[in-house]
Amino acid sequence: MQHVNSKLDKAAILKAIRSCLPAEQKNVELHEPYLCGNEWNYVKECLDTNWVSSVGKFVDVFEQKLAEYTGVKRAFAVVNGTAALHISLKMAGVDEGNEVLVPDLTFVATANAVTYCGAIPHFVDCDEMTLGVDPKALSDYLSRIAEIRDGECINRETGRKIKVLVAMHTFGHPCDLEKLSDLCKKYNLILIEDAAEALGSFYKNRHVGHWGKFSILSFNGNKTITTGGGGAILTNDEKLGVRAKHIATTAKLPHPFIFFHDQIGYNYRMPNINAALGVAQLENLPRFLERKRVLAMRYKKSFQDVAGVRFVDEPGFSKSNFWLNAILLDADTAAERDGLLEYLRADGIKARPAWTLMHKLPMFQDCPRMEIPMAEAMDSRLINIPSSAFL
Amino acid sequence: MQHVNSKLDKAAILKAIRSCLPAEQKNVELHEPYLCGNEWNYVKECLDTNWVSSVGKFVDVFEQKLAEYTGVKRAFAVVNGTAALHISLKMAGVDEGNEVLVPDLTFVATANAVTYCGAIPHFVDCDEMTLGVDPKALSDYLSRIAEIRDGECINRETGRKIKVLVAMHTFGHPCDLEKLSDLCKKYNLILIEDAAEALGSFYKNRHVGHWGKFSILSFNGNKTITTGGGGAILTNDEKLGVRAKHIATTAKLPHPFIFFHDQIGYNYRMPNINAALGVAQLENLPRFLERKRVLAMRYKKSFQDVAGVRFVDEPGFSKSNFWLNAILLDADTAAERDGLLEYLRADGIKARPAWTLMHKLPMFQDCPRMEIPMAEAMDSRLINIPSSAFL
Questions:
Q1: Spatial separation of the C-alpha atoms in residues B262 and B254, rounded to whole Å
Q2: Which one of A108, A263, B188, B311 is at 20 to 30 Å from A391 when CA atoms are compared?
Q3: Cα–Cα separations (whole angstroms), residue A80 to A214, A232, A242, A264, B35
Q4: CATH 3.90.1150.10: which residues of chain B?
Q5: pLDDT (average), residues B38-65
Q6: Residue B354, min C-alpha distance to chain A (Å)
Q7: Is B345–A257 a contact, with Cβ atoms under 8 angstroms apart?
Q8: pLDDT digit string (tens) for A49-62?
Q9: C-beta atoms of B112 and A264 within 8 A
Q10: A266 touches chain B (CB under 8 A)
Q11: Over the stretch B150-205, which tens digit does the pLDDT of each residue have?
Q12: What confidence category does residue B5 fall into, taking pLDDT thresholds of 50, 70 and 90?
């Protein structure tokens, strides 16, 4: 049912997607959990032993296994990725009236968490290859608007301190962490990696999460592994890690029966029953990653012959988890994106566009931002396609 | 091993507690979950159907059953009681630089949630009978320090607006809600009930949660029913309830594939797997309440003959859930409280004092407060004793 003047071959795109998916599956969601291991056993153990709440063996095991897998010194589990970001920003010293550099192309949690600290998100553009923060464009921008005064990075235009850069690994594809890390050093910014989508993604043979002072993961139901709802903070600074866990767990000082809290804290602990899911899921992570890679490579091949569309591949320096596969429409067919989405969804393929850009949301429209041509392009031309590990 | 000059008969107190507990149980925690119903069936259903995350049947059922049981128009489940308080305060319009009246005798979450809004907790004393906010003392205090200007309650001493009174139902015993409600009307304050501990508690034959504009529950592992970690917001204002849920769920507008968020939101959804636990637990709530009442009455009887100690009974106008049983030492034996705690704990009875008073915590020591003789008394003389429903 295409318009006569359509440039986009919707049927070819649908066919390219369908050819990569199991034939028997009519409705295909974007990303669903794959509970195929010890989930039952571990969750049942929680129930049988009465340890379902905020302290318990599985929380400890999950944290330890996460640290082992990612290679960081300390990982700790929290209630979701948003909470992990909030604590990380607090620990980085983000305070009332500071600015935090945040990608314009991201899930709203990244910018929301900045506001929880009383700070202001300052939106930056993304790179065409990584879909993450563009180091070159940001460097040019900072050289125009920022300067170091008394060791602090100041936005000359607003007079406010810029404290942190949050680099988000979009759809699991790693940003160019070395370049961003260098840029942060130059401007005395603290780097936080928002790796909510990037468990299992490697930058130059090392798991993401090592370049930020803190990094965060998410285990929401739509992520590569899930705990129902959950997140984690990763850090190589053991002392900061202990402090972060302290404020995320109501800042109570250890004592057998006295309740004494030494600062304002948060109730961000992950319950043991959710961590039990996480431990089981983590055991299957290598298998999930393998399957997700196979699916991504099938998509890549399948889209080679479709005109006007490009499969978004992993950046050359990285090994991506391919959390959410994506295709990019040619610029001259951007106007047909919503029509394509409707077409795919009518067939049962639950495709979707990227998130609405942050600066287009009413609460962030007056926040400072650089020119963001690439994020605008992604906003109008990118489509995510089904990516569950069991496909 | 008592001191020669001790006035407190520790052995008699231990005996009075032990006589109410199952003989075979050496170590007795203060409050543990009792997972004796459909917990496994429902959790297993989540795992089998792949619905473990933030949307799902059990969240809806749990919310509906909570509303039915408490009689409020709308209940919705969130990630914990702290989150429920935060959203309730936001919805009540608490903003930067406002003051919120909060009991000095409470768990730290009540005061922390106020600070999350940029507001200042203002601590008030408790009543000897209810352990909750003392309406008479607060009325006297407000008549001295507060005045209504342009319809708003102003603290004359600080010049700040006082927006809300949070009334917490201590250990499950209801506050005197009618009197507090009248006082709030007189001073144009919004009443929020912190019923974190009070699921199953009734004030004048009606479940708590109807007097506050919003009320909150907690389902932490130490509560009467548990979801691992969790909480809920209750309200009789359906419109406000819908708005509260909206901001607690990232403020995303409903759309099949567009991510558009119309304001700053929070990621406070309760995952389906936790709600599954909650539905099973709620089915057994009447049984838990019955058993907890039997235990409380046993304690009451047992302590009738112990000199120097009084069992904290439910206020006359209420039917309490007896979440945490408590005994109160006579004033002249307060100095022996910690010795008694050690003595009981050495025998395996995990007794504990009430929370450290809020104004004694470093982050709240400069907050405004009224004179708090009764909270001080409770702080020095009260002891919580084991209260699990399975005892």
A1: 11
A2: A108
A3: 15, 7, 18, 19, 25
A4: 10-34+285-385
A5: 90
A6: 8
A7: yes
A8: 888 777 789 999 99
A9: yes
A10: yes
A11: 999 999 999 999 999 999 999 999 999 999 999 999 999 999 999 999 999 999 99
A12: low
Could you read off the pLDDT of A247-299 as tens digits, one per residue? 999 999 999 889 999 999 999 999 999 999 999 999 999 999 999 999 999 99
Are A266 and B112 within 8 A, CB to CB? yes
Which DSSP letter does residue B364 get?
G
The answer to whether B30 contacts chain A (CB < 8 Å) is no
DSSP secondary structure, B178-240, as one string: HHHHHHHHHTTPEEEEE-TT-TT-EETTEETTSSSSEEEEE--TTSSS--SS-EEEEES-HHH
**Tokens 């144009």 map to which residue?**
B188
In this complex, the residue of A52, A266, A351 whose CB is nearest that of residue B277 is A52
Looking only at the bridges linking them, the beta strands covering B231-235 and B74-78 are: antiparallel
Cα(B272)–Cα(B268) distance, rounded to whole angstroms?
13
- Work out the minimum CA distance from A385 to partner chain B, whole angstroms: 12
Average pLDDT over residues A18-37: 94
CA distance A40 to A281: 11
DSSP-based three-state secondary structure for B58: helix
Tally A–B CB contacts below 8 A.
179
pLDDT in tens, B94-122: 999 999 999 999 999 999 999 999 999 99
Q: Is A39 on the interface with B (CB under 8 A)?
A: yes
What residues in A contact B258, CB-CB < 8 Å? 352-353, 356
Q: Tell me yes or no: is domain B10-34+285-385 CATH 3.90.1150.10.
A: yes
A 305-364 residues with CB < 8 A to B: 341, 345, 350-353, 355-356, 361-363
With a CB cutoff of 8 Å and minimum separation 6, the contacts of B292 are B224, B321, B322, B323, B387, B389
Q: Is residue B1 scored above 60 in pLDDT?
A: no
Question: Cα separation of A318 and A304, whole Å?
Answer: 21
Three-state DSSP class for residue A47: helix
Q: Where are the beta strands (DSSP E) in chain A?
A: 74-78, 99-103, 120-124, 146-149, 152-155, 162-168, 190-194, 202-203, 206-207, 214-218, 231-235, 309-311, 318-319, 325-329, 352-353, 382-385
pLDDT digits (tens, 9 = 90+) for A80-117: 999 999 999 999 999 999 999 999 999 999 999 999 99
Count other C-beta atoms under 10 Å from residue B217's C-beta. Answer: 28
As given in the structure block, the two tokens for residue A321 are 């988890």
Yes or no, beta carbons of B351 and A257 under 8 Å apart: yes
- Contact of A30 with chain B, judged by CB distance below 8 Å, is answered with no
What pLDDT score does A5 carry?
62
Fold (CATH) for B39-283: Aspartate Aminotransferase; domain 2 (3.40.640)
Residue ranges, comma separated, of all CATH 3.40.640.10 domains in chain A are 39-283
Q: What gap in Å lies between CA A323 and CA A173, rounded to an integer?
A: 8
Element (H, E) at B101: strand B99-103
CA-based nearest distance A239→chain B, Å: 22
